[in-house]
Design a protein that fits this description.
The protein is α+β, with helices and mostly antiparallel strands. It contains six helices and 20 strands. Strands 1, 2, 3, 4, 5, 6, 7, 11, 12, 15 and 18 form an eleven-stranded mixed β-sheet that branches. The protein has a five-stranded mixed β-sheet with strand order 9-20-19-16-17, with no helix packed on it.
């Protein structure tokens, strides 16, 4: 199943995407009619995806045409910062420095909840904030249940599904401040979506192709098989001393081919269109505007 969040006129909702018929099963309305208040996908995940096995056969009265709605980020406003993994692909670690920069342990930073933006949105950034805005296409894990001290063997049981993020990064702010948070947390610098693909539809998340294009030019062409730290290890490490909760998001790192890695660098310009495609999930597309 592919879950989406959407805006229809002045009302937001969430549901299941039927790609073949270009329809969305409106789960918010369905649960309302059952006397259950589940306003968004994050609440749906937090409550344990009730009646999950029955969601394939809902009445046509709950169908919405994709053309009638705006697709939003699946988790429109995360409850906490997005966990991000730095240098989780060997070639990317090298392009950002050298073989000495390949980490021995997961490198974790975060992006603020206000960074989240929708697919297909035009993302506007002030030129005075950054002259070196970069892209990073990534597979993101959506946590499905609460846990702490999660073992590697049990870690995948805590995954609800997978989505795409573009970890837009102000490289000059990273350098200026000597840390990642400010350069990674500009408003709208984490477009996400267009869907969350349920884990049941992803038998092996460590064998997914990931391709990032800028204006149609392939910049990143990698595979999650090249992770330095696999998803179970990331969940295990993060949960050792902190509680992971339903709806938490873990961005698993980006392959080689970011703008900074080219000589000369290929940073994002006004009007650039970025498309991040991950096998089975779809394509996250956004346009950049600089004012």
């Amino acid at each position: 199943m592919k879950f989406v969040s959407f805006q229809a006129k002045e009302e937001s909702g969430f549901g299941i995407l039927d790609e073949e018929n270009q329809q969305i099963v409106n789960l918010k309305d369905y649960y309302f009619d059952q006397g259950v208040d589940i306003p968004d996908l994050q609440t749906f995940i937090r409550q344990g995806a009730p009646e999950f096995d029955q969601l394939d056969n809902l009445s046509a009265q709950y169908y919405l045409s994709v053309e009638r709605v705006e697709i939003l980020a699946p988790i429109t406003r995360p409850a906490k910062n997005i966990f991000c993994v730095g240098k989780n692909y060997r070639d990317h670690a090298i392009e950002m420095g050298s073989e000495k920069d390949i980490p021995q342990h997961p490198m974790i930073f975060t992006k603020a909840p206000t960074t989240v933006s929708a697919p297909n949105r035009v993302l506007t950034f002030g030129r005075e904030l950054s002259e070196t805005l970069d892209y990073e296409g990534e597979l993101a894990v959506v946590i499905g249940k609460k846990g702490k001290g999660i073992s590697k063997d049990d870690a995948m049981d805590y995954v609800f599904g997978y989505t795409i993020i573009n970890d837009l990064t102000a490289r000059d702010l990273q350098k200026k401040h000597g840390q990642f948070f400010i350069g990674k947390s500009l408003d709208a610098s984490c477009p996400m979506g267009p869907v969350v693909l349920h884990t049941s539809a992803v038998p092996e998340p460590h064998e997914l192709s990931i391709v990032t294009k800028v204006n149609g030019e392939v910049r990143q062409n990698g595979s999650t098989s090249d992770f330095i730290f696999a998803i179970p290890e990331l969940i295990h490490v993060l949960s050792k001393g902190m509680t992971l909760e339903p709806g938490d998001i873990i961005a698993t790192g980006t392959p080689a081919g970011v703008g900074k890695g080219f000589n000369p660098p290929k940073y994002l310009m006004d009007g650039d269109v970025i498309e991040v495609t991950i096998e089975g999930i779809g394509t996250l597309r956004n346009e950049i505007r600089k004012r």
